[in-house]
Amino acid sequence: METISRNIILDLLPAYISGDASEDSRALVERFARNDPKIVEMIRSGRLESTDIAPETSMPADLEMKTMKRIRRSIRRQMWYVALATASILMVPLVAMVFTTEVNWGVFDFVVMGILLFGTGLTYVLLSRVSDSLPYRVAVGVAVVAGLLLVWVNLAVGIIGSEDNAANVLYIGVLLVGVIGAVIARFEPLAMSRTLFATAIAQMLVPLIALIIWRPSFDETPGIVGVFILNAFFATLFSVSGILFRQAAQKHQVDAPK
Asked: How many domains does one find in the chain?
């Protein structure tokens, strides 16, 4: 079996730590790290410190800069993909308006939907780079899609009564639980799992609070049962995301060098 030079591992470390390395490269680094405590320490700390590396195996001074430039280029390219996807989706109602009067969007509608779609896509691009774990990335996707649908449904028709019903303002609190929780969790998978479960609980608390304060609103479509079913749907999405984040945390613990 061919022996891998420590210099090669050091070359791969910036991409490994940033989550930009391929599965094969990650496996190579992790195998080497089992017999190199200093490599393990750099992986755990997320820092590449030249003082921890012997002179004969020192990294090129511009290695990390090159890696960061490659990551930025990748993010810019993905942002263009998101922008293209956003424009393509917005073409659907635009074309529909030509053939039917059932669709009647104004400039404001296109602007708001464009911001929602692009913001959702950009959020996924940035957060999914935190880890190359498939469960983590799927969890991010489920969470951001759930957030997008929650905002869109409330703006379009409203969940409790109509879109103008004051009770729907409570859903801002659900989104804040998710956003603030994610920041506090620092996007670590296990803490993100707890955040998404808390978001699911907040989602189900909204109709209960609204039922106490805005009881007449439930006489409107979709009614009490419909409102609770809709909230259960969103709570399920957030819970699924939480489960996937927990799986990502477990996978990370199994794969982490000892």
From this structure: 3
